[in-house]
Amino acid sequence: RTTTVTARKEVALAAGAVHTPKLLMLSGIGDRQHLEQVNVTSRVHLPGVGRNLQDHTFFPLFFNLNHPVSYRRQDAMSIASLVDWALLKSGVLSSTLLEATGFFKTRKGLSVPDLQLHLVISPGTKKDLENFGITQEGMRWFRIVDGEHGFVILPTLLHPGKTGRVTLASSDPFAKPVIDPNYLDHHLDMATYLEGIKMVLKLARTPALKEWTDGTLRVNWDECNTTKCGCPSRDALHTPDSVWECLVRQYATTVYHPAGTAKMGDDDDVNAVLDPLLRVRGVANLRVVDTSSWPTITSGNTNAPAIMV
Nearest CA to 237 among 218, 217, 213, 251? Predict the structure, then answer.
């Protein structure tokens, strides 16, 4: 059955940086050649739809903790935590777990930071790793033990050197789109990660953190040699760059911050899907109001800027 829904003024599309371009392309708005390849009738030729995909990625570095102060899953699910929150608005349930963050420039000449550090006061669980796409091999590399305390610092690549693309797999609206994020395809991406990892390892050994950690990484020493990248040095600061590069390529993962796939831009930008007021070019009364509209991903978390759009 076909159902027609009309708008009195405008349609505001906010399906996210993956599904917004998918919906546009299924509607015949996108690159004509690609649409013809998947048997979608082209209505408005906008070659930028689905292009310019940008995302943040991070790499987890888990550390030992000297005191039992981290937030564990069983603590969050306890009656005591529920009482703390209900009566005092304190305790585990009052925390976002992300207790600190920082922004850094890893080389001279940058106008904005290229690295963010996320500090999460939690030892993590295998389910957490699964949610971020860590493979079973990765489970063997990281030391994740239920009930133990720890924390994680995640160096985060803010501005990847190359962009990716979202395309249609077919004209079937229920088919998943094809996502090519093009992660780590620029040499400076890895250079930023290596600087960030060394920064974190040094940070974990500063006098300010001495009371809380000895700076030892939580690595599964019994099994890390069975993984593709092998083990780091026992003194992690002496680990060769080649090992860290292998680990980043294996286990760095999305922060779920995709953006840029229907970007706004000037009239002379052939890949600008939207005008500066977020209106879809060549289509009356249609705007995109999500992170797809950004020409460049933000130098930090995307939630608040997305709400602003």
Answer: 217
What residues does 12 pair with on adjacent strands? Answer: 287
The pTM of the full predicted model, rounded to 2 decimals, is: 0.92
Number of DSSP helices (H) and strands (E) in the chain, helices first = 9, 13
67 belongs to the catalytic site: no
pLDDT, tens only, 265-274: 999 999 999 9
Q: Among candidates 120, 124, 119, 122, which has minimal Cα distance to 144?
A: 124
CB 213 within 8 A of CB 204: yes
Q: What digits encode the pLDDT tens for the residues 114-168?
A: 999 999 999 988 888 899 989 888 889 999 888 899 999 999 999 999 999 999 9
Helix segments in the chain, DSSP class H: 16-26, 32-37, 73-76, 79-83, 126-131, 136-141, 187-203, 241-251, 303-308
Given the residues 19, 56, 149, 257, select the one marked as catalytic: 257
